[in-house]
Amino acid sequence: MPEPQQAVIGGIDCHTDFHVAVALGPLGRVLGAESFPATSAGYRSTYEWLASFGPVAAVGVESTGSYGAALARSLAERGCGVIEVNQPHPHLRARRGKDDAIDAEAAARKVLSGEATAAAKDTTGIVEAIRQLSVARNSAVKARTAALCQLRDLLVTAPAALRAQLDTRRTLEGKASVCARLRPDTDRLAEPAQAAKAALRSLGRRIARLGAEASELERSLDRLVAAAAPETLSRLGCGTHHTATLLVAAGENIDRLSSEASFAHLCAAAPVPASSGRTHRHRLNFAGNRDANRALYMIAIARPRYCERTRSYLNRRVAEGKTKKEAIRCLKRFIARELYRTLRADLATLTTRT
Predict the structure, then answer these.
(1) What is the pLDDT of residues 126-151, one digit of tens each?
(2) Can you give the residue ranges of every domain in the chain?
(3) CATH classification of 8-113 is 3.30.2270.10, yes or no?
């Protein structure tokens, strides 16, 4: 009998220059596979090709946070539900091999079976802007730290007279500011003393430039995070960078997370079952968003110094027989529950505030 026309499920494997799409019928039959360029015209053609088989119910897309970000935005603008899909299971690769069409079909089947249900992050608002600025700021901070380490190493082997000149400053940052004002003789760079001055001046100026760049980005982040999540920012231990990290992890459409438990699992702050037979236990979650996990850990480390309630909680957990590490893990789970609620409230009222 001919198959009745029903909703179509799409699956897309994304790459830098092109995307491969597969369309499935309502019973899982492959309707077609096609490759499209990773351009605005290609995104439009992808949706039109999927819609040619019937109404598009949902599309499973790999790499919605990287290669498929622009495609996910284009599909969402056309009213198509975009589902975030992880890479295929290694067992599939062992059985069927590996190519783009197989990966796209696997993505579509995860959506069809209900295994993949999480909506892709909304990357059209202020949270995406915070993510982009955070990437640039973190890069500047890391580069500045690397330059400081290189300057410290060069000072170890620098001529004694030059080291004595720099010993007037105690901190490495102070030495860098002095190095930025050195005046090497460019006609005598074959001499180690002049070459050392030139290298130290270059590093000193680089450190100053990167520091100014990081400070400018931090001021921009302060404004955006305060506008996006004022309630979360007011919580003890939640500075601009920790709040920004948790915002980026959750996404602006935080409703895609069904509960605070799913947010804790996303942040790798919830234990996962590891039982078998007569053994019943849980283990640490080594997956999840490691940046968000680190933010929760830093908040959990900072709070006991200033909050009597937190200290009482940790002491009670230790008295119950848990180690200090285990008590900190319990506190991280508690903080994840609290901040999920504040983030949800902040993002719910974001439109009215902006």
Answers:
(1) 999 999 999 999 999 999 999 999 99
(2) 8-113, 126-228, 235-353
(3) no
